[in-house]
Amino acid sequence: MRNQRRQPRADTVASVGFESNTESSILSWLVRSVTILAAVSVLAGTAAAQTTSAAEDERKITIAAITDFHGHIENGRWVGERFEKAEEYNPGNTVLVSAGDLVGGSPYESGSQRDEPTLAMARAWGLGISAMGNHELDRGVNDFGERISKPENHIDWLSANIRRTGEFYRLHDYTIRIVNGKRIAFVGAVTDGLGSVLSRSIMDDVHMDGKAIDQVNRVADRLSDGDERNGEADAVVALIHEDADVIARSPIGLDANVDLVYAGHTHAVKTGRHTRSGAPIIEAGCFGRQVAVQDLLVTGSGRDARVTVADAFGSPVVGMSAGDGDPARIINASHTANTSLERVDAIIRRADAAARRSGDLVVSSVDEPYDKTTPKGRDHLETLIADAALDGARRTTTGARASVGFVNPGSLRTRALDLDGDGFVTVREAKDMMALQFDNAVTTLTGAQLRHAIAQQWHRRDGSWRDGHLGISSNVRYDMRFDDDGPTVEHLSVDGRPVSDGERIVVAGNTFLLTGGDGYTAFLDGTGYADTHVPYAQTLIDHLKSRGGD
């Protein structure tokens, strides 16, 4: 990709003219011709020297990126090996980065230890730069400021669209690395939809400072304005915790001062997207199953620099499924484990041992796996966890009067509750399913508001109504009617008793859902919202224990 903001200076053009054919003019012409030939010779030599200088000035910088790792330390060695291959490919000139959600929503091995194993693994890899994702805030803004972003983790956390107040004092718009003699700026941003993926109580401490694309452009433009006093970069890499398609289709659009974009948030592998000026936009999957590795070929400096982006290993993203065909393997087939990979292995062993001590305790036997990949299994799983939310609320003073339980499918992280299919659910399996840092909460809805909340799970797509599968406790019955006005809930009853529109009903669910998460804004119309301060995973464990076995 040719960076369109940094154009080379126009070449000097020499023109040759002729006078009338007189003796004096001939003599004059001869003198001038000799002079011009000399000048052309000098210009040619200068041009050749400039071409040689430009070729000698071109520097290669390699960027290796992951996104949405979410504490999947079981894949940490594979990621470490890919990072090692990138560094062997371009020794001393490689930068390791993340596009956000390094931690949060993590499997039990890391999540049960507040993701300390993941942060240790990032140190072992040498990961030094990351955009802030929404899950970095799962345990609150204070946790991010005091623990996740502490200097000992050696990560520069970036988000240009978050106002740096309070515990965000270690969060920055950008950072610059001098690599192979070039200044490479990394500018970060988090999704503009942060409020829809964080609990309201956490968002109260977060102040968005403009749109992600606008703010990345603001910083990239400043770093490319030719003014050394306010910072200057030779290339700009954007780390944006947002879907690659959202970035590519933005009506604002990233400008030509951005040379390469790493996206995230949707857990997808997306390539072939570009900014308006042609910069690649790459989203490298999730959970450490993919790594993106690109080369920046940089010539010149500052606003006059020219940047070309190439895929270091032949494809934008290297995937774990590539196996022996992984193009990164050809760099050094005889590679043996080094100190950093040995540290990764040790981290995994320690985390797994700790997880086994507390996580392998059996909670309950079950007669089905509650597998959400099948319609029946999904319905049973969602009903089970909605029942657990209701049961958990009723066990507290705050939620003692709860009548209905809810769960949003997006809060259920693993494929099945009995993941190994052995007929038993362990603490680890329950907490892996409920891995997000939500509490159980309650709010009070009128009967009409309850109907609205239930109806919000349906959306029109491709001319038909699609069910969003909002999990509802087993004591609720209703019928649905669909017409031009939208979906309508009819014949609603709770515990066999019809519900009137004006009746007040206490409902339970996780803190994210009941504060409007996943688009269920009907819950925001409720009154008396209260957090029970019981983790939503614990409500499932307690509910399963109370049932004994199925």
Give the rounded overall mean pLDDT. Answer: 88
Count of structural domains: 3
User: How does the helix and strand content classify structurally?
Assistant: alpha/beta
Class of the largest domain, according to the CATH hierarchy? Answer: Alpha Beta
Figure out the total of helices.
14
CATH homologous superfamily title of the largest domain:
Metallo-dependent phosphatases
**In oligomeric terms, what are we looking at?**
single chain
Strand content: 25-35%
Could you give the count of β-strands? Answer: 26
User: What integer value in Å does the Rg equal?
Assistant: 29 Å
GO molecular function: 5'-nucleotidase activity; calcium ion binding; nucleotide binding; UDP-sugar diphosphatase activity
Keywords: Hydrolase, Nucleotide-binding, Signal
Family: Belongs to the 5'-nucleotidase family.
Domain EF-hand: 415-440
